[in-house]
Structures are given as structure tokens and as C-alpha cells.
Amino acid sequence: MSETHYTTLNLGPTHPATHGIFQNVLTLDGERIISTEQTIGYIHRAFEKIAERRPYYQITTLTDRLNYCSSPINNIGWQMAVEKLLGVKTSQRVDYMRIIIMELARITDHLICNSVIGVDCGALTGFVYVFQERERVYEIYERLCGARLTTNIGRIGGFERDFTPEVVKMIYEFTDRLPKVLRQFEKLLLRNRIFMDRTINVGPISAERAINYGFSGPNLRAAGVDYDVRVTSPYSSYDDFDFEIPVGTNGDTYDRFCVRQEEVWQSLKLIRNALDNLPEGKHFVDVPEFYLPPKEDVYNKMEALIWHFKIVMGEIKVPVGEVYHSVEAGNGELGFYLVSDGGRTPYRLHFRRPCFIYYQALPEMIKKGVLSDAILTMSSMNVIAGELDG
Amino acid sequence: MDNAFITSKLKTRFPDGIISTDESSDMLTVVVSSGVIHEVIRLLKENESLGFTFLTTLCGIHYPDRELPLGVVYHLHRLEGNVRIRVKTFLSLEHPVIATVTDLYSAANWMERETYDFYGIVFEGHPDLRRILNVEYMDYFPLRKEYPLEDQTREDKDDRFFGR
To answer: Does residue B1 have a pLDDT over 90?
Structure first.
């Protein structure tokens, strides 16, 4: 009876504990994980191929569907990549509006991820608390762009609509309300003995391995590396603001949780600051070649009609060249490698999708751990199926 | 650390391997011959004065009209001091084989599988080179330019006037 028998367990493709469609075939010795084989690609939609046939302004809708928990960051990141190629400089008001929207998106992304860590260890209450706040952010998006999840917010050169006084009021109300809810949420989990026992030293990764694996975002910072795209390569006037980059020490599930939690506080501060100092002006910059004119103008002004026609029919010259632009998305460095041959569509567009890159470290992180910890590690890494499969 | 330093470092070590360097885009772009790519990346990563320890992306590109049509583009990042570099190498369609960098960067594993999946570029020495996003029985490489996105036999759709 000395022979060891391993169990093979199929976790996924659809499994209530994995929050997305991907498969892990685990080899188990009792409850300990011996090895993991990952299969991904269940919702691959060939965005990079589709992008090669779409004009620049139509690609924003593809980026929505990458990390759909924080789509405004993807949208705006893409628009900034195009602006970098075109050499368009945005105004301070546009930059600040973008910061406000992107930080709202970061808050929702982190809230979902952190509350789901709670759900996966059996604490459903916190999830319900913060989900209500996510709803309020979605109402703000709705006011701005009409959509909630796949927002398609903003345009190349700015926003399609300005912040109305009502939107400003809603954002202020949100920033007033959230701290109370956050404190409640943290009271439930942050120093909760059971939660700490379940998460401390679960799925750790060292800083060195994390860099080698191409980690970015909160997962890298939890391992102790203070790399944040917003600070190292400031875009959209992030350098006008003071904010802290929280870092962890062990790179375990608890550190990832704490880093995200602190980032929510920092984002709140950023939103507040940006909104207080929001400069007056227009919500878009003057790039008629790329910014679709307002509909009333298209119907009533010759100039606007011509630009509208030229944009839609693809008669605009785009410079030849290549750029790499990255933004700090909800779960890491979201990069756009854009090659243009001067045509109306990108010649090649590659998305650096952060979770595609760091998800491959999962087998190493959960090895020798127990199955229930593997689930927690997975949810704390914030793997979003849409971004994983591209 | 400036671009001239990186360029001179690379050029002294690989006098024949560096085909061109270009600073006109957003970061230093180096085109190297495919035979020395592994050594170039190793130097960039392991040399103490260079230290590009972070592999940002690795992806393929296809230029059907060129002599060497298939390309691999590496974006490397030195986190201290925030220096980025783009390394490109080109391969022939008949022999699209290149050395893997998975021994240097664990992150390259899936990126190389993705590049293989989309462009059919074979990474020699890769521990597990299989398709990753597409189905295993697919018999073509979809991101190559000769594969049209939509069914070309359709007659009900005429996109000519939309510049397509």
C-alpha cells in the first residue's frame, strides 16, 4: 500500500469558483496540489485581427471587452496611444476628466476583486456592501456615455460629452459616501482573524520571480516592487497630483488585498483633487481630423459635415510609425503596441494584456498548497477572462 | 543611461548582429539578425549596466512584401530609471525559427506560444510550444496578412466605398 495515487481534478472551464471561463487541470495528492495544467482561450475573439480592419475610432469598442471590470481605463488608454501616434496634446481639462474617470474605474475594479476574495473564503456580506457603490459609479458612466459595462467612453482628443453639473454632483456624492462603506468593508475583513488566516502566506511570490514573470499592477506591488506606470511614465497629467503607491512585502493573497484596498483610498484622493482643481474649458481638444463633431453641427454646419464624412469614410492621413503606450489599468500595465503604415486602420495592434502575462505564474504560486487556497490565489490575482483571451 | 550608451554596448559586442538602430520613434529601436537574438536579449538583461529585467511584450508582425516577412518584436524595460527598448528581428517564411527567451524570462512562455499560434513562428527550446488561444486542430496562422478577416466569398456585402 505504499503506492501514491494522485487525483486529477478538472477545475473549469465553467466553475462557480473561477469567475470566468478558463480551465485548470489539477493533479492532487489528497488536498495538496502537485501540478496544474492551464487551458485558456475559451472566449478568444481575435481582437488583434479585427483591429487591423477597423479605423482607429472604432477600436475603442474592442478595448471595452478586454478588462470589462474597468473598461474606461482601456478606452482612454487606447485613445491616448492613438494621440501619441498623431502627436496630439490634450488640454489640462481633458486630462483631469480622464483621471477622474480612470480612477473611478480603478475603484470599481479593485472593489470587485477584493470583495470576491471575501466571497471565495465565505464572507459574502462585504461583497454586497461594495457592490452597491460600484452601481453608483456605473450610474456616473451612464450619465456620461450612456453605457454601463462596455462603456466606449471618450474619443480621440477628449470626451464626447462634458461633465454636467449633475455628474459633478454625483461624483462628489460618491466620494463622500464611499469612505464610510470602505471602512465598513475593511472592518469586516482587514483585521478579521479568519480572513487573515485564510490569506496570509497563501499564494506568495517573491519580487524577483514576479518581475521575471512580467507581473505588473497591484500584484507586482504586493511583492514589494514600487512600479506604477502612473508614476514612472506619467500620462494624462498624473504628475500634477500627489499620491502614494502602496507596496506589500510577501506578495501573498493578503498583501494583494491590502495593496488594492489602499489604492482605492488613493484613487479617492486623486478624484477629489482632480475634481476640485478641474480647469474650465472644452471637454475635447481641437483635432477635427479625428474627433467626431457633435451631431447638431453635422446637420447645420458645412465644416462639421465635411469632417464627419472624412472621418467615417477614412480619408484622413495618419502618420506612419510605431508607438508603445501603456497605462496603469486595474490589474497592471495595459500596453498598446501600435504600428501604422499610414492607412486608415492600424497595420498591427498588439495589446499587452496584464493578466494574460501574470496568469501563467499560477501553477508556481499554488504548488504544494491546498485546493481551497488555490481558489483564493486565483481570485486575488484578478484574472479577467476577457483580457486573458483577448 | 542614454540610447547612445546602449547602442555602443550592443555594437561592440555584436558588430555584425546589429542591423540598424533607430531613435525616431518613442523608444530606441534595434533591429538584430535572428541568429543572435538570444545573446542580445541575454546581454540586455544580464549586463549590470543595462539590466533590462522586465519583458513587457513579445509579439509577432507580418510584412508580406519584404524579403524577411515575419518579425518578432520584443519590448524590454529597465525598471530602475524607466528605460525602454524595442528589439526586432526578422525571419523568412520558409524557416521561421528563432531561439526562445523563456530561459531568461518566465513571462515569455505564453507570449511565445501566442506568437506561434498567430504567426507560426517556432521558438526553438521552448518547453511547451502549443497553440494557446486558438483550437489545437487549426491548420493556419490567423494573424498573417494573407488570411482575410471576413469570408471573401460573400456577395451581399460591399465595403469598397468604406476604404476596406
So the answer is: no
CA angle B28/A389/A330 to nearest 5° reads 70
- The answer to whether A31 touches A371, Cβ cutoff 8 Å, is yes
- In what helix (H) or strand (E) does residue A223 lie, and over which residues does it extend? none
A384 inside domain: yes
Residues of A in Cβ contact (< 8 Å) with B119: none
Q: What angle do the packed helices B3-13 and B37-46 form, to 10 degrees?
A: 130
Query: Would you say residue B119 lies in a domain?
Result: yes
CB contact under 8 A, A232 and B79: yes
Residue A142 cell numbers, joined: 451612464
**Per-residue model confidence (pLDDT) at position B147:** 86
pLDDT in tens, B73-85: 999 999 999 999 9
Instruction: Tell me whether strands A332-340 and A348-352 are parallel, antiparallel or unpaired.
Output: antiparallel
Number of domains in chain B: 1
- Domain assignment present for A2: no
Model confidence at B32, pLDDT cuts 50, 70, 90, reads very high
User: Which structural domain range is residue A305 located in?
Assistant: 48-389
Does the beta-carbon distance from A40 to B79 stay under 8 Å?
no
CB-CB contact of B122 with B100 (8 Å) = no
pTM, rounded to two decimals: 0.94
- Residue A298 is which amino acid? V
- CATH code of the domain in which B79 resides: 3.30.460.80
To the nearest whole angstrom, how far is the Cα of A321 from the nearest Cα of chain B? 7
- In a shared domain, residues A29 and A69: no
What does the mean pLDDT of chain A come to?
92
Residues A29 and A126 in one domain: no
Closest CA to B90 of B117, B51, B126, B64: B64
Question: So what's the ipTM on this one?
Answer: 0.92
Is residue A109 less than 8 Å (CB to CB) from chain B?
no
Please name the residue of chain A whose CA is at the shortest distance from the CA of residue B146: A49
Domain that holds residue B95: 3-147
A41 CB neighbours in chain B (<8 A) are: 132-135
Q: Which three cell numbers stand for residue A232?
A: 514612472
